[in-house]
Amino acid sequence: MLLMFAFFQLAVVILLVLLGFFVFVNDPRSRANQTFGAFIAFLAFWTTKDLVFWNFNDAAFGAGWWAAASFVTALLLQFALVIFAWVFPENNRVPHERAAIFFAPGIVFIPAALLGYLWDSVEYVDGRFDISVAPLAYFFVGYVYFLFFYGFAVLIGKYRLYSGTQRAKQLGAIILALAITGLLKTLANLVLPYFDRYELLPYSSLFVIPGVLIYAYAITNFKLLSLQTALDQFRLFPITYKIAVSIAAVAVPSFFVFQVPIAWWAFRDGMTPFAWQKYLIFSIISALVPNLLLLLMIVRSVSRPLQRITLAAIEVTNGRYGAEADLRKSNDEIGLLASSFNEMSRKMAEDLERLRRMNEQLQRADRLAAMGTLATGVAHEVNNPLASISSLIQLIRSRKDNDPETLEDLDLVAAQIERIKRVTHDLTDFSRSRPPGRAFINVRDVVNSALQLANYDASFNRLEIQTSVPAELPQILADASQLQQVLLNLFLNARDAMPQGGMLEINAESSGNSVRISVADSGSGFDEHISRNAFDPFFTTKPAGKGTGLGLAVCYGIVTAHGGTIEIRSGASGGAEIVIELPIAQ
Q1: pLDDT tens per residue across span 410-447
Q2: Domain 2-234: which topology?
Q3: Taking the model in full, what pTM does it have?
């Protein structure tokens, strides 16, 4: 019977420690959870002292130490109760000045209990316990119950304040727990001992278990006893749980696998000095195995992942943006840290690339603005002399004495004048800032009209055209003539990139809140330098006299004026692909 009672109390101590650990780790920053952890620690100490005293009492030590520990622990439990009443459920700060006033008597009562001034005599002989308390003990008990009822009253006040809410349910459960615990403890520790009945005294530490369960049940969002809540906690499985489980998984089996057999082997012939020597030496040796195993588990679950995250962070610091920590996906704090770090590194790399593109676009827009101002003046100054030269050529042509060679030279000069006019016309178009005439248009109609114009060119007819432009594409708000100019320019550029003929693919699709149009050719393609500068004014890859380098710059200006984007990339067939995105009309 004695052995069963000892094991039952040991099980209660383990249960209390696990319960306190579970609630504390559930939210370590919560003052209510911190107070609960302290309360559980005092209660576990109370149960342990009862376990030792009532099951393994040594007459040489007497019963005074048990009485002193009981008085002090009872007071500390009430301190924890009052602090809990102050901080729960709002997670308030502890009012230190009020706490100093309320807890000041403890400065007298705790030393009095430790020095034995609360009893005249206490003894436990032949299974019979007896205590005769001193007058100071009555003041001590009165102070303990004052703290208890004060904390009880504070919680009742908060219960009324939060009536009808979830907090009220939590407070109601705690008040119930306090009432049950207070009633049972008073019966076992005061009422019956007052009549010299100590039968329930050894079990008094067990009477708080129902109250503790309700207490924990309340402060963990009123869900502690839900199986799903417990499973959710272990599904999240923070690193603290992992380490605790690792320690338990190593310590408990190693005790039965190593320590119990060693103790039996060492003391089978009696507890002699030589037996103790064998036990100590082999216990230390056997402890190395589980400790090394535990160290390996902690290194594997904590140190190695942190090392990989640190190395990845160093790579990012050195400029390798987008570097990631190579870790298996886990659901603890380190796994969350690694996942967040990898996401941060990826977003940083994407943001830097986006900033680089935006910077290029701003530089290009700045160059376009400067060239627009310059182009207006250049076109005006050039067109006036050209008009005069054209008039003189017409005058010379009208003479009847012109020989064929002179007429040929005049034709050549006229052709060059037309070329200059085309350049100034492009400059004028480039610099013109008139707002587009917006209307709801269908992309397929604009593509077809641009193709119809391009088909008047004999060289364009050599190309194999493939189009995939659905009629049911969402409408866009755009200037049809300007968008047609953009597409025609791209079609003719593709023609120039395939002088011997080739494939021209025109596709359009809806993508999110925009319509995407792509024009891809099977020409010779381009390098990074071309893709980076293709939209700059006067940049061209065509031979001298074949292009002005303003076509794509004009396209860029039109598309961006419509709130869209245009970019050049390598096509799937090895040539170039121009991709335009324009917002869908709302």
Answers
A1: 777 777 777 677 666 665 665 554 555 678 888 888 88
A2: Rhopdopsin 7-helix transmembrane proteins (1.20.1070)
A3: 0.50
